[in-house]
Design goal:
alpha+beta; Arc Repressor Mutant, subunit A; Endonuclease, Chain A; 3 domains; 4-stranded mixed sheet; 3-stranded antiparallel sheet; 10 strands; about 15% strand; DUF559 domain-containing protein
Length: about 270
């Protein structure tokens, strides 16, 4: 395999022993370093000049990208993070200081020394141990929605208590990350709730009882999408449903207002067939 082909396939960063195992000669690696075509970024790691900065930093520090940081790299729903999350062996030591949040823990699945990013199983396990239940649930359901995990596989793995709780609670059919947090927050109402069911030819985010529909707008709710959503809302109301439409910002930052609206509607019996 060509040196550059291998590096490009691994985010631009690789351990030199992995390059040699792939059939690339030491002399070729040394020549590329001497000519400035690749950089030696740590004692045993090299990288292309335009390699992924996160991978370069991980190799230099001696850690693996994990938890919410790796979840974001998978394109999963998260609530963001103020600092990178990385993993290191329980009794290991770092090559240099870091401001990242370091998870000093044994991984659920063994990590190859040549890998700088956690696989999806380890990522979910660390998320479950690190994040509050709601936020972790959002990440897990996002992974299920992207078909990155299979229920039977997760069920056979030895997750910690919160991982098992998430697996018991999670939906494999959630349409968006934000609606994941709504049902746990509303369970105290003791009213049946169903996600992503089709009514009048379109799926609704949440049906509370028999007639109360909660729709949650994301960033796509503009122009033609807004027009179609308004049309569907009107059709639902003509069919006897009551529709509450809220935004992502309301769910995240003004939940008390959303909860009050829903509780008021339930108190009026708007969730029941009349």
């Amino acid at each position: 395999m060509e040196l550059y082909e291998y590096l490009w396939a691994h985010g631009g960063v690789a351990r030199m022993s992995a390059l040699i195992d792939a059939g690339i000669r030491r002399s070729e690696i040394r020549r590329a370093i001497a000519e400035g075509r690749i950089d030696r970024i740590a004692r045993s790691w090299v990288a292309l000049p335009d390699a992924d900065p996160a991978l370069v930093a991980a190799a230099q520090i001696g850690v693996t990208i994990t938890c919410v940081s790796q979840a974001e790299r998978y394109g999963l729903w998260t609530f963001g993070t103020d600092e990178p999350h990385v993993a290191a062996p329980p009794n290991g030591r770092l090559n240099r200081p870091t401001t990242a949040h370091v998870h000093w823990s044994k991984p659920l699945m063994d990590r190859s020394p040549d890998v700088l990013e956690d696989g999806i199983i380890n990522t979910l396990a660390v998320v479950a141990a690190c994040q509050p239940f709601e936020k972790a649930l959002v990440v897990w359901e996002s992974a299920a929605r992207k078909e990155l995990v299979v229920h039977e596989t997760l069920d056979r793995l030895h997750f910690g208590p919160q991982g098992r709780r998430i697996l018991d609670e999670m939906s494999w059919y959630s349409d968006s990350g934000i609606e994941t947090v709504v049902i746990p927050r509303l369970r105290w109402l003791r009213v049946p709730m169903r996600r992503q069911i089709s009514i009048a030819g379109h799926r609704v985010d949440l049906l509370i009882g028999d007639r109360l529909v909660l729709q949650i707008d994301g960033g796509h709710h503009v122009d033609a999408q807004r027009t179609e959503d308004n049309r569907h809302d009107a059709q639902l109301m003509l069919m006897g449903y009551h529709v509450i439409r809220v935004s992502y910002i309301q769910i995240v930052n003004r939940w008390h207002e959303v909860q009050d609206m829903i509780a008021t509607a339930v108190a009026q019996g708007l969730h029941k067939i009349r």
